[in-house]
Specification:
heterodimer; A: alpha+beta; six-stranded antiparallel β-sheet; 16 strands; 53% helix; 11% strand; B: mainly alpha; two-stranded antiparallel sheet; 7 helices; flat
Chain lengths: 831, 172
């Protein structure tokens, strides 16, 4: 009998009185209090009975428990992996969280159905393929660690991802368009890398994509479909034998649905289905049964996106339609092509979001029989003068044209680092254009004789091997800016690009009107980019010269700030002084243009090192990346700041963003390696260093991070070899010597460590010692008092290494428990 | 970081986010049979918000009062999510004595949530008392202090509410 609402107060009053009475006398007490009201009495009695039965009900505070029969595999060991928790299950098997007892790290262990072990040859081929995909070291491909078998069930061991599957995400409906494009772009990027090695995925669907908590996307299970399908390469048994259906058919390509031969383009169809679903929340092909879905895939044209959500951009429709073409010849022919289109769309969406009010950028092009050109590479202009010093001019013009033309949304311009790979090479424009996958190529020659400047430029349509435009400018005086304006104008006209007024204004924008100042600035940049101590000093003189000629030249101030900041990592002067100068210059630049991303990117490092004001530093980088999402260094500096705080997943995502913008720059590789050393993901750091060394064997920092990573992995001999190279290439920079001596110390070569240490501590006149490097060695030798002393000196001098490394540097783990060290970190602004 | 003084919404939001984050952190990917003590969670949230982020609460009781409703929400959301994902198993409440799970029957989180709503329809204060006692582990005295009523009232209402909820849950 439950308590009725209108009796509630009365029942409770009698209950309150009776419940404290001895149970033997309780019935009588209730009867007395209720009088003749039988219904009331029954309600009270029922409540008292409930009270007695409730016993300790709710007495102890809530403890939530996951209620399921515990899997009997938990606690078992497979090879060197201890299974610790169940994560999920799918058509391909069950996934567990496991602990790698050899390497002491968490991993994911996927148990496959026992039947796949029946065909040893197929299993072997799967292993080879999965390993090949994993060894691409692509940030969007799940890393496979190992294979094995538990009882009769084969298993795969991989990195453990914290996040949700895309399926989980889609269960909550459509995602914002920019996010949809971003996710698809990352998958396309993974596919591009795998396809290049001839590996198709064959089962692209939301269940096989993980979205990490930081937004990073990982594609799982390359090649697994072929193994688990139980069918040879020709396709699947779908449709004819419904009993064998695994998972969902919604993401299959028409050729898969028909059981025909499958190739890489099949993955692009599946990805198109996912992009459609991400953007609209509904699937393009549906049916009541699996067979119905398959016939829809073969026959139906999906509803246009705009019918579902009119706000979706037309460009997205174009991309989706191309992915979903029934005939594979009409789809994108490579994942790379798809990714590029998505990148462009993303940039467009970004710029639309930034410009208020959001007017869709008109992208009308003059209609003509020939399709308009939408991609261009500006190859480094050659320096035709005898004087090698005039190289600053040819490089400067190239860079400036790349910067200007990149402002046009309808034109994809190859990033600077990619273009500069072709510097000094004699090439056939058609071949180069094909290699670079662009439709047009701009080449040129610069010659300066006395005050006569001669610039020759040529624009070639790669598709037709035809010259679109060519001209020679002979100018007196220092009329460089006008020449650049004219070249940019000619390109716009000859590529038949139609620009909006705003785009036109941006294209014509000049950072200075003073051509003399511009020349000096270009010289400063030229020497700055060489990054050796004498060149940096030279660059400062030029930047100062440019400022003298045009005191409102924001970029020149920025160059100056940057030169000082770069100098702090070398042994050139006390960092405090350099940072103070850098700060003054950066603030000057921001006074002229408060949103200048280049200046903000420098300021952020200064705020971290000099001001120890991390909150502002983070705010500044965020602003820089928002103001100019296409500026790679802003992403890199943001990443460093995040990494210094141990936010590695975010840092990695950010530095990869920078890398996507300048994929072939050694400096970016160096930054990516830096972040991964701090995140203690040494394998990735080593791979990045290898790529950097492939590009430029003499780039010192690549050898440095290679050495540090190898040392952390216990490969001391190789580590020492790398660090010795770093020392040689930096001409004995103290931070490199410190790293080397640290490696000696940890490998047990104490005498050599001490030898290096005493060299380090010898003050050389006019040379600054990076105290942080010395402290590293002392820490490794167990001399913590001394190490703390040197860390204090680094603190006093506002060392960049201390600010950006100490909080997470693996080499300082030995002093991490020391109260003095903890205090030091706090004084540096951590926690 | 500090919300505007006196801005209750900001504080509630902060507590909510912190609890949600912690709960998510502890619940996700945990093995079946894993238990999570809400009081430990609330205490951790308290430590983080008060000692790390230096947010000044009027009193400890004030914080726990706020956390109770949020904790309930967080756990119910988790239970809903788990109910949708059958493979992961559902979320239930159990009784922890020391560190051992007793054999007492588990309580369905969603059913309890619903019952608490019905209780609140009848008497909001009673539902509040249950939240404070059950979701953040406040004692009778602490609950009285947080609600500004006498311990005797808390004790009476608690006894009644417990019996009422028990009856309702065993009948449904």
């Amino acid at each position: 009998m439950t308590v009725t609402p209108h009796a509630w107060t009365r029942v409770k009053a009698i209950f309150d009185a009776a419940v404290v009475v001895d149970s033997k006398r309780r019935t009588a007490c209730v009867a007395e209090l209720c009088g003749a009201d039988e219904i009331l009495r029954q309600q009270v009695e029922a409540m008292l009975a409930a009270h007695d039965q409730a016993d300790t009900f709710l007495d102890a505070p809530a403890a939530a428990i996951i209620d399921r029969q515990a899997s009997d595999l938990i606690g078992r060991t497979a090879g060197s992996y201890r299974i610790v928790a169940w994560i999920g299950a799918g058509g391909m098997g069950e996934v567990y969280r496991a602990h790698d007892t050899k390497l002491d790290r968490p991993v994911a262990l996927k148990l496959l159905p026992p039947r796949v072990a029946d065909d040893a040859e197929r299993l072997r081929r799967f292993h080879a393929e999965a390993r090949a995909a994993s060894s691409l070291n692509h940030p969007n491909i799940l890393v496979i660690h190992d294979f094995g078998a538990l009882d009769t069930r084969p298993y795969i061991v991989s990195e453990l991802i914290e996040g949700d599957t895309l399926r989980h995400r889609l269960d909550r409906g459509a995602v914002p368009v920019r996010e949809a494009v971003g996710i698809t772009m990352q998958i396309a990027s993974a596919l591009a890398a795998a396809h290049e090695r001839g590996i198709a995925h064959r089962d692209i669907k939301p269940e096989n994509v993980m979205v990490r908590t930081d937004g990073y996307v990982k594609v799982l299970d390359f090649g697994l479909a072929k193994l688990v399908d139980g069918q040879p390469d020709e396709g699947t048994s779908f449709g004819t034998q419904p009993g064998l259906i695994l998972g969902t058919p919604h993401y299959m390509s028409p050729e898969q649905a028909e059981g025909k031969q499958v190739d890489e383009r099949s993955d692009l169809f599946s990805l198109g289905v996912m992009l459609y679903e991400l953007a609209t929340g509904t699937r393009p092909f549906s049916g009541d049964t699996n067979l119905g879905v398959l016939s829809s895939i073969l026959r139906d044209t999906p509803r246009p996106l705009a019918q579902i959500n009119p706000a979706l951009p037309p460009d997205l429709q174009r991309i989706v339609s191309r992915c979903l073409a029934k005939e594979r010849q009409r789809r994108y022919q490579s994942a790379g092509d798809l990714r590029r289109d998505l990148e462009e769309l993303e940039q467009l969406l970004r710029s639309e979001q930034l410009s208020v009010p959001a007017i869709p950028a008109p992208r009308t092009r003059v209609e003509d029989s020939k399709p308009a050109i939408d991609s261009l590479a500006v190859l480094p202009f050659t320096n035709a003068a005898a004087d090698p010093d005039a190289e600053y001019l040819s490089d400067g013009i190239t860079e400036s044209l790349i910067n200007r033309l990149s402002q046009i949304p309808s034109l994809r311009v190859l990033p600077r680092s990619t273009a500069f790979r072709y510097k000094g090479r004699d090439l056939d424009p058609v071949k180069a254009g094909r290699q670079l996958k662009v439709q047009a190529l701009l080449t040129g020659k610069v010659q300066q004789r006395g005050d006569l400047l001669s610039v020759q430029a040529e624009l070639v349509d790669v598709r037709q091997n035809a010259q679109l435009w060519g001209d020679r400018f002979n100018r007196r005086g220092v009329d460089l800016l006008n020449v650049e304006d004219e070249i940019a104008q000619q390109i716009v006209e000859n590529l038949r690009l139609t620009l909006t007024g705003e785009e036109r204004a941006r294209l014509a924008r000049r950072d200075t009107e003073n051509t003399g100042a511009y020349h000096l600035y270009l010289k400063g940049r030229y020497y700055w980019s060489k990054r050796t101590p004498p060149d940096l000093k030279k660059s400062i003189e030029y930047f100062e010269g440019a400022i003298a000629k045009d005191p409102g030249y924001a970029l020149a101030y920025t160059g100056l700030a940057s030169a000082y900041v770069v100098m702090t990592v070398f042994d050139l002067a006390v960092p405090t002084d350099l940072f103070t100068k850098a700060k003054a210059a950066a603030l000057q630049a921001l006074e002229v243009d408060s949103n200048l991303a280049e200046a903000l990117a420098e300021l952020t490092l200064i705020q971290g090192c000099l001001d120890r004001d991390w909150e502002s530093a983070v705010e500044t980088c965020r602003r820089a990346t928002q103001r100019r999402p296409g500026y790679w260094l802003a992403h890199d500096h943001y990443a460093m700041t995040l990494a210094a705080h141990g936010q590695f997943d975010d840092a990695i995502a950010e530095v990869r963003r920078g890398q996507a913008l300048e994929p072939l720059s050694v400096v970016v590789h160096h930054h990516v390696a830096w972040i991964h050393v701090l995140a203690r993901r040494y394998d990735v750091a080593i791979a990045e260093c290898r790529s950097a060394i492939d590009m430029d064997p003499n780039f010192p920092m690549a050898h440095m991070w290679m050495g540090v990573s190898l040392e952390q992995q216990g490969q001391y001999d190789d580590a020492i070899a790398s660090l010795e190279r770093a020392v040689a290439l930096t001409r004995g920079a103290s931070i490199a010597v410190g790293a080397l001596a640290h490696a000696y110390a940890s490998s047990g070569r104490t005498d050599e460590a001490r030898q290096r240490l005493s060299e380090l501590r010898q003050p050389i006149h006019g040379r600054y010692i990076q105290h942080y490097g010395v402290a590293l060695v002392l820490a490794a030798l167990g001399e913590s008092d001394e190490a703390m002393h040197w860390l204090e000196l680094a603190y006093r001098d506002h060392s960049l290494w201390l600010a950006y490394w100490a909080n997470v540097d693996p080499r300082l783990d030995v002093v991490r428990h020391d109260a003095r060290f903890k205090t030091l970190l706090r004084r540096l602004g951590f926690q | 970081m500090d919300p505007a003084p006196g801005s209750m919404d900001a504080l509630v939001l902060l507590v909510h986010e912190e609890l949600r984050r912690l709960a998510h952190h502890y619940m996700r990917g945990e093995r079946v049979g894993h238990t999570l003590q809400t009081t430990a969670l609330v205490n951790e949230a308290y430590m983080r918000l008060v000692e790390v982020k230096r947010i000044d609460w009027r009193s400890r009781g004030h914080f726990f009062a706020m956390a109770a409703t949020t904790m309930r929400r967080v756990l119910v959301d988790h239970a809903r999510e788990r109910a949708r994902d059958k493979r992961g198993g559902g979320l239930v409440f159990t009784t922890l004595t020391g560190h051992a799970v007793t054999s007492s029957p588990a309580i369905d989180v969603l059913a309890l949530d619903e019952a608490l709503d019905r209780l609140a329809d009848m008497d909001a204060q009673q539902a509040r008392i249950v939240e404070l006692r059950y979701f953040t582990g406040l004692t009778i005295e602490e609950t009285a202090e947080a609600l500004g009523i006498s311990p005797a009232t808390v004790k009476r209402d608690w006894t009644w509410a417990r019996a009422w909820l028990y009856q309702r849950l065993s009948l449904t």
